[in-house]
Design a protein that fits this description.
single chain, 266 residues, mainly alpha, MetI-like fold, 11 helices, elongated
Length: 266
């Protein structure tokens, strides 16, 4: 892997570790108001300054990683898993099954993602337990379309025809013949879809429809501290840079996966 890919992998692992273990560290939950002034600049006492309530921004960013990374990762895995399973079923089943699944997914695709997210949040609320299925539902159609195009092409290959001729069942063909040969491109698609989910959740939180106080993800941290934008406060810049670094890291990793350029040159 080239150095940009290693850089992306390092940043991604860093944020995953922060999301997993950061909230366990003492004094990083950002809930202690302390004696600090609001929107303090970067200093030795507050490495990223303070927010609109005088809370330490470093602690708030670390605590917010749990929601930004965690919710996005769960929603992405759920969306890609459902989309891939539906694609396998559509490719290995009768044409009418493929048509029903594809037309249903096309109907979902016709609804803009932001509008569907707003409808879901308005109907069921913005609790964390609802944000995961909401984000997953929005990105199932995209995962399905990519997976179906791969599955249909693989299903037409000779070794799949041989397996079907010797009497192998549909489930065997789906899981043993088609799925192993589409794992790599689907993993790359999962990484890109993770970036889309992160940006969607950040957008919802910036509008006040994502993670609700007293908890916060990076998008809501930007919204809460937008009052410091005119003075260039670190309270706005820090969570925005966290979102940017996470999305750039994933893109660097995906674009530099081993063998990816070789396949593209071929």
């Amino acid at each position: 892997m080239s150095w940009p890919g290693l850089l992306g992998a390092g940043l991604l692992v860093l944020w995953l570790l922060v999301a997993l273990f950061g909230p366990m560290l003492p004094g990083v939950d950002g809930s202690d108001l302390g004696q600090a002034d609001v929107f303090e600049p970067i200093s030795a006492a507050h490495w990223l300054g303070t927010d609109y309530l005088g809370r330490d921004m470093l602690g708030r960013v670390i605590a917010g990683a749990r929601y930004t990374v965690g919710i996005a990762l769960l929603a992405t895995v759920l969306a890609s898993s459902i989309g891939t399973l539906l694609a396998l079923l559509a490719a290995a089943s009768a044409p009418w099954v493929d048509a029903v699944i594809s037309r249903t997914v096309d109907t979902m695709t016709s609804i803009p993602s932001k509008m569907l997210a707003l409808i879901m949040v308005a109907a069921f609320g913005s609790d964390v337990s609802m944000l995961v299925p909401t984000a997953a539902l929005i990105y199932v159609p995209g995962a399905f379309r990519i997976a179906r195009s791969l599955a249909v092409n693989i299903n037409a290959l000779d070794y799949v025809t041989v397996a079907r001729t010797r009497g192998e069942g549909r489930l065997y063909i789906m899981l043993k013949e088609i799925l192993p040969n589409m794992i790599n491109p689907m993993l790359a698609d999962l990484g890109l879809r993770f970036v889309y989910v992160v940006l969607l959740l950040a957008s919802l939180s910036f509008l006040g429809l994502g993670v609700q106080p007293p908890e916060a993800d990076w998008g809501s941290l930007v919204r809460e501290n937008i009052g410091a934008l005119d003075s260039g406060g670190a309270a706005v810049v820090a969570p925005a840079l966290a979102i940017a670094s996470l999305t750039i890291a994933v893109n660097l990793l995906i674009d530099n996966l081993p063998g990816r350029k070789a396949r593209g040159d071929h």
